[in-house]
Amino acid sequence: MNNRERYAPGAATGAEVRKDGEKWTLVLVRDLSHPPAQVWKTLTEPEHLREWAPFDSDRDLGSVGTAKLSTVGTPTPQVTETEVKRADAPKLLEFNWGGQDIRWELEPLGGGGTRLTLWHNIDRRFMSMGAAGWHICFDVLDRFLAGEPLGRIVGPEVRKLGGWQRLNVEYAKQFGVETPSW
Predict the structure, then answer these.
(1) Cβ atoms within 10 Å, residue 149
(2) Helices (H), the chain
(3) What percent of the chain has pLDDT over 90?
(4) For labeling, which of 5, 10, 100, 128 is most exposed (least CB within 10 Å)?
């Protein structure tokens, strides 16, 4: 049995929901044992994004400007023109993806690690699904950085994963929302 077959996501932790007026934001935090410069590469370089992210990019996201992000794992890939608004390596990356603002903050931790915080403006109805999906992406990212790649798990493949369904329910309870289904 390989690493991917043995993979099961841990408990739903490190997430919260914030509301500002009519805008809802999902905030996920993960401490990684890898330095910020290494984590930055996985967030910005197309060849690294292909290992864990729910999208591909037509260019390095490490500089301000337009990029095209393509969803993966969907029957018909959606290509979205994206505006990278801020790219302060290796601390902050902000872009708009499909009308949703995404902000990545990287904070150095003692011992050479990184606290990675994702801020994702998302429709409240999809908060628990988004949290479950990003949770799994963070797990895959962490394993990739550790040299134990699982390959990204997105789209129908993620929904077949029993752990995703469990995470969806756990996050829905934490956030006080109904459990959506696809």
Answers:
(1) 15
(2) 3-6, 36-44, 46-52, 127-145, 156-160, 162-175
(3) 68
(4) 5
Residue 76 to residue 53: CA distance in whole angstroms: 17
φ, ψ dihedrals at 3, nearest 5°: -55, -40
Domain 3-8+15-175, CATH: 3.30.530.20
* Strand-pair partners of 15: 28
User: How confident is the model over 102-113, as pLDDT tens digits?
Assistant: 999 999 999 999
* Alpha helix ranges (H) inside 3-72: 3-6, 36-44, 46-52
pTM over the 0.90 mark: yes
pLDDT (tens digit per residue) in 120-165: 999 888 899 999 999 999 999 999 999 999 988 887 777 777 688 8
Instruction: Let me know: does 54 contact 64? Beta carbons within 8 Å.
Output: no
Q: Are strands 55-57 and 79-88 parallel, antiparallel or unpaired?
A: unpaired
